[in-house]
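Let's practice the habit of predicting before peeking. Look at the sequence and jot down your guess about where helices and strands might fall. Then scroll down.
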Amino acid sequence: MNFKKDNKMKKNIFLILLPLLAFVINSQEVFDQDFLDSLPNDIKDDVMQRSNEKGDGINDNFSAYQYSSKLREKEELEKLKKRLELDLIELERRLSGDEKLFIEDELELFGSNFFNTFQTSFMPINEPNPDSGYILDVGDILDIQLVGQNSSIKEFQVGGDGSVNIPNIGKIVVAGLNLNEASSLIKAKVSSAFIGTEAFISINKVRDVNILVSGNAANPGIYTLTGNSNVLQALSASGGISEFGSYREINLIRDNKVIETLDIYDLLIDGKYSLKKRLRSGDIVFVKPRKNIVAIDGAIKRPAKYETTDNQFLGDVVRYANGMKRTADIQNISLERILDGTLKTIPIVNQKQFDSITPVDGDLIYIREFPFRQAKISGAVKKPGSYTMAAGETLDDLIKKAGGFNFNAYPLGAIYLNDEAKEIDQKSRDILYAEFIDNLIAVSQQNISENFDLTPIVSLTSQIKNSEAAGRIIVNLQDDVEDSQEVQIKDGDELIIPETTNNVYVYGEISSEGSVMFSQNKTVEYFVNKSGGFKRFADVNSIYILYPNGESVRYESKRNVFESRPRSQVKIYPGSIIFVPRELDESTPRRLAAQAYVSILGNLGIALASLSSINNNN
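Done guessing? Here is the structure:
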């Protein structure tokens, strides 16, 4: 019986472990452990993650030579770029016309975050600090110190009848008096009762008051505060104002009469703090319903939604928003308003109209902004810095604003950086890195890792992962070309003009990396030989040359009758970078390697030119 039970238990354990065993075997078939151990940790993690993303298709071999999906991604990226360009054109058209403008980003109601950042220490709950204008009432405790023939110090609480009872003097009614008035009265009573005795009065403890916060408060209810509190502190205790409440009219009601009104805009916009009334038990803090809400957007310094009162005009909204920007197109201002159930666009001919139009709840003011943009120029120019550029202005205009080139400028090596190009560059690098990871997985699955030296390809993969997208656009700013007149400036663009250089930079599989003195009409082999010649594993058939303007070409050191660009046409300019890669085996497609080298060379060229421009600016 026990024997059968043991066999049954072993069988169950085997059935449980069988899937796990199959997974382990399967994993070993996909990745060789020695291969994984040979990878850097970050590359190894990406290989495993990339493999897991394939899900059930993990047993399907990765093909390092099929990239149709990658091409589709690039095509989609190009379509996205075109669609964004069309959207910008449509936006410009609508801004210049009378059509309804849709504001996509939701504007916040001005003042709505005021109570979110309210300091609790603003409200004196435990340690009151009343001034001389504090009104005494039942429950306050006074410290009265007598100095002279009758010296003493005692606490006296204001009783239910509003008085303090001082021995040998009697009751003195202080309720309703401020602290200064009560002190004067008590001192006079002490002086008349005790010759040569002076009294000093201070408040020891402030009474508690029970008040009601009502109306459109965030958390209406009864609250216990100190007698030194005011309307603003009561609102803070209740969590502020609800989405239906007004920031313009919060009333303090006492004995069924409004004795004080708080307008939070007075505090936030004009800096007026005129709250003089202290709370008393039985007071009501009432938040009125929200009034007219007007949104203002576009070329305004503080776009937001603002609440207006019944006796105000749209000009007050413009003032609340801190006025218009310097770039505002005052000839293109529109007011959207719901009239007879239909949304209408009302053109504003001039700013003076704002002072005569009464706001209506739901109004939207939109002020078109001239499409100015900021661009930066640095390096070998007379006035490097940031400049405001108008729409349609070009690189040539930017150079003119900077005073033109210095005598030592090297326009051929100009670097033009653009944010949109940077995003596309980053996307392309991500795709390229994914292709390299796929290639590493393919090498592992095909069990060829032992037949090839993977060190170069792993190193290349790491360089791609750690490189940053630059967003360089190739331009030629020499006198005989018109690129500077054709390329229009975009917001955030940067132009770097390096100094003239007399060096050629040689890197890679050569004996001595670094710079070589430029010589006119010399070949690639000349500069390589000046750097000590090729190393043993140099790939002489795939030498990459990065010209100062950002263009790159592949050059074969050996003569090839079928080459598309004969060696006689490969000209080396000052500032060119010659890169000799390490020879790769068949584990990596040459197209992948070429893309990687060009990407890495581009960053190196920008770094060298930027260093030159920094030296010039200093």
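How did you do? The radius of gyration is 40 Å.
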